[in-house]
Amino acid sequence: MDTRRLLCVVALAGLVALAGCAGAGGGDAGGAGDADVTRSVDGGGADGAGSVTEEAGDGSGDGSYAMADGEGQTAAAAADRRLIRTGDLRLTVDTFAEADAEARTIAEGYGGFVSDSTRETHERGDEEFTVGELTLRVPSEDFDAAMTDLESLGDVERSTTESRDVTDRIADLEARLENKRAERDRLRELYEGANTTEDVLAVQRELADVQEEIERMEAERAALEERVALSTIRVELREEPPEPSAVSTAWYATGVVTAFLESVRGLGTVLRAAVVAAAYAAPYVLAAGLPLLGVGLAVRRRLSRSDGEE
């Protein structure tokens, strides 16, 4: 009996030791990682393995998957933003005409167009130089590439870009449009069910106001969408102004024919100035001269009478 008792105690102690080792192994696996816990539990009962395996799988992937999902959502949210992008360039170019043609070609190459353009020619001494400005519209996805190509046309004096986020504005317009359209549908139902002339006229007025508001918001949303789809780039092109001549030509070095022609032009200028001056002075001469002439005649007559009486 004692021997049996002793064997039972030894067997029980062995089982307790084995259970402690299994618990320690499970604890170490849990500390090392959830995947190890899943494998240790899989060796156990089938009922618990499925649920524990699912939990372990969720735990092992939670951090990395959540991070990946968060980054993906952030990138997707950034890509969905509605941005109006504008650029402003000032370039000094060798030849305005060539730079102007190349800028137009760049815009057309990206599927864009020139919306406005100006050109001015200035003189400095005997030379001319041209300045002008182009307003280009290019697809927003090609904005950066178009800016880079345009900067290569000359020496960059100024290059600025600006982005304006209109995502919330467009979303607000869409929500308000949805509400207004629902209101329009309700008014149409009321209009169809109106029985009196007063009700019909009242519903018509409300319906007209709502329709006008819908059209206004639709036009604003379309304008914003168009500016989001097509970026605006303003390009100012300037030829280098010529340096002023530092050497003055002596008057006696002028050619004979040139001197004669300049003299004739000078005489013509003097005569023209004299005629213009006379035209300006004529009204004043008449206004002041006629009274003086009358006074002079009156004095002369009196003097003549005095001489006759004597």
UniProtKB/TrEMBL annotation:
Pfam families (UniProt xref): DUF4349 (PF14257)
Transmembrane segments: 277-299
Ranges where the DUF4349 domain occurs: 81-294
Residues covered by region (Disordered): 41-72
Keyword terms: Coiled coil, Membrane, Transmembrane, Transmembrane helix
The organism's place on the tree of life at top rank: Archaea
Coiled coil regions in record: 156-234
Protein name: DUF4349 domain-containing protein
Annotated organism of origin: Halorubrum glutamatedens
